[in-house]
Write a structure and sequence with these properties.
The radius of gyration is 24 Å and the shape is elongated. The chain is α+β, with helices and mostly antiparallel strands. Helix content is about 35%, strand content about 25%. The two termini are about 25 Å apart. Strand 4 and strand 5 form a beta hairpin. The chain folds into two domains: about 250 residues, Aminopeptidase (3-Layer(aba) Sandwich); about 130 residues, Alpha-Beta Plaits (2-Layer Sandwich). It has a six-stranded mixed β-sheet with strand order 1-2-6-3-7-17, sandwiched between helices. The chain has a four-stranded antiparallel β-sheet with strand order 11-13-9-14, with helices on one face. Strands 4-5-18 form a three-stranded antiparallel β-sheet. It has nine helices and 18 strands. Helix 5 packs antiparallel against helix 6.
Length: about 375
């Protein structure tokens, strides 16, 4: 028997930062499963540099429980780690390493569980859905979902093992991200009024975005179960201008909309595009071609699973916890729900608060609790079709 912590040690050693290949890690998992007699389906990206893995333990002709996880991790560059982020390091009862919480800890528990599951006569199968490029906008799993759409039988529901301290999470916000470019007219700065300053255009539009945010915050939908109860707009990056003595002709900024499931993110985006048209119009008396262009950045749908649904009751019975929660960060669960109509919950070991930071860790207790949860899953699927 290989323990979940032993598997975690192996998984952490693959530096699967999103921009790098995850193929070595995928073939490691494929080998582990193959030794247990479990065949994996590999779904590559276009360039064949990364891959998703799909595997089924148990009967192939029954809709099963999908366990979803991403294999990529965020970079460590510029972070001050106390130990090598790609060597699992134990200090006290915590296990440190990049991805320990987000979310190789969960994958490790899945592999340890697989050793146990293959020895049992499952009536309902367990599926593994391990993806790439989640951290850069839930990119990889979309190809896996396209493959699942072609299968005659789809999973009954999905558990996404993102770190929630094993709380059952039923909902998260959706996200839309854009890069906006303001196109103005350059001029010598001593003749500033004959140019159109693209920095001013961008600032005026950002002021409109802030006005829309204020309106949403005071008049929009609210859900007190979220840490921030309403849909948020945020500008995270801006760049423009070349020198003091040039009126800049181009400025761009990145903004995001993190919307409640009951809000329409696209409608809010349309409202911002309308505001952009109005702002641009104001500059056209000087330059007829003053305008904004929008390019899509990362986006993913919201997830919203009713608290009284089967999947929620099922996973609550596995964890033994009564409460459910909602989270502010996104997961692949929204895509399972939107693309395939598969109800999803988020429930995994570790704390999101330590993810993406130096000295990320998962505790041994969390790993053990996740092992217990997955052992109960196997038990339950032996008795239940
Ligand atoms: Zn994650």
């Amino acid at each position: 028997m290989t323990s979940s912590i032993q598997y975690l040690e192996q998984l952490i050693a693959f530096p699967t930062v999103s921009r790098e290949s995850n193929l070595d890690l995928i073939s490691y998992i494929q080998d582990v499963l193959k030794k247990l007699g479990v065949i994996s389906t590999i779904v590559h990206n276009e360039e064949k540099t990364k891959a998703n893995l799909w595997a089924t333990i148990g009967p192939a002709d029954v809709a099963g429980v999908a366990l979803s996880a991403h294999t990529d991790v965020v970079p460590v560059i510029g972070q001050n780690w106390s130990s090598d982020p790609f060597i699992l390091t134990r200090k006290g009862e915590n296990l440190y390493g990049r991805g320990s919480a987000d979310m190789k800890g969960f994958i490790a528990c899945c592999l340890a569980m697989a050793e146990n599951a293959v020895k049992h006569p499952l009536k309902t199968p367990i599926h593994f859905a391990f993806s790439y490029d989640e951290e850069i906008g839930c990119i990889g799993v979309r190809r896996l979902l396209d493959m699942l759409k072609t299968l005659p039988i789809r999973p009954r529901f999905c558990i996404v093992g993102e770190p929630t301290m094993l709380q059952v999470v039923t909902a998260h916000k959706g996200k839309l991200g854009y890069r906006v470019t303001a196109h103005g007219l350059e001029a010598h700065s001593s003749l500033a009024p004959i140019g159109v300053n693209a920095i001013y255009m961008a600032c005026d539009l950002i002021a409109e975005i802030r006005r829309i945010q204020a309106d949403i915050a005071s008049h929009g939908a609210r859900d007190g179960d979220y840490e921030v109860a309403y849909t948020t707009l945020h500008v995270g990056k801006i760049s423009g201008g070349v020198a003091m003595n040039i009126v800049p002709n181009e400025t761009n900024f990145d903004f995001e909309i993190r919307y409640l499931p009951q809000d329409d993110g696209e409608a809010i985006a349309a409202r911002i595009r309308e505001a952009a048209e109005k702002v641009a119009f104001g500059f056209r008396s000087v330059f007829a071609d003053a305008r904004f262009t929008f390019a899509d950045l990362q986006s993913y749908p919201a997830m919203d699973t009713p608290v009284d649904s089967d999947v929620v009751n099922f996973v609550r019975a596995l964890t033994g916890g009564n409460s459910t929660g909602k989270i502010t960060f996104g997961t692949e669960g929204g895509l399972f729900q939107k693309e395939l109509g598969i109800p999803a919950v988020v429930c995994g070991p570790g704390n999101i608060a330590v993810a993406h930071k130096p000295d990320e860790y998962v505790s041994e207790v969390q790993m053990a609790l996740c092992d217990d949860m997955l052992a109960r899953l196997v038990d339950r699927l032996c008795s239940e079709a």
